[in-house]
Amino acid sequence: MAGEIIEEPYPFQSTVGFDVTEWRDGLCRLELPLSEHLGNRYGILHGGVHATLLDTAMGFAVSYTGDPDICQLVMTLSLNVNYLGVASGEKVFTTGRMTGGGRSTAFASGEITDETGQTLATATGVFRYRGQDRKGNDT
Q1: What total number of domains does the chain contain?
Q2: Residue 6 domain-assigned?
Q3: What is the CATH number of the domain that holds 124?
């Protein structure tokens, strides 16, 4: 999408197989094709994959700087996931949104839906800025 910053996939992202489809101030969207290797022993999407997607989308949402030369790193302090349903279709979609924060910490919420629009999981997270905050202040 024009005007957006999308980073190259990092190794863990490539292993799991999700794509960042939108990333802007306070928002990140991910897309993951469902694959057999991501299932648990029941053959449904593993809960750890849900947690990974939610943590990633929320972390990206709170770390957007608008400048491709400035990479704001964050560390997850708290992640709470609520598992609500089983995926239908061939893909899942994750949205992370920044909900607040201050100079050194940020708060976010997230959700995963499937192709039918069913909500599969929701989450909240608390993140600590590493190095500098989004405004360039040392943390």
Answers
A1: 1
A2: no
A3: 3.10.129.10
Check: CB of residue 117 under 8 Å from CB of residue 136.
Answer: no
Stated pTM of the model: 0.91
Provide the domain limits for residue 90. Answer: 14-130
1 has pLDDT over 70: no
Chain position carrying tokens 């940020």: 106
Handedness of CA 64, 85, 47, 37 (dihedral sign): negative
127 near 106, Cβ under 8 Å?
A: yes
DSSP structural state of residue 37: G
What whole-number percentage of the chain has pLDDT above 90? Answer: 79
Residue 36 has pLDDT above 90, yes or no: yes
Task: Please tell me what DSSP assigns to residue 55.
Answer: H
55 falls within a domain:
yes
62 phi/psi in degrees, rounded to 5: -85, -10
Residue 19 in domain: yes
Across the beta sheet with 19-24, what order do the strands follow? 19-24, 27-33, 91-101, 105-114, 119-130, 73-83
Q: What is the pLDDT of residues 58-97, one digit of tens each?
A: 999 999 998 888 889 999 999 999 999 999 999 999 999 9
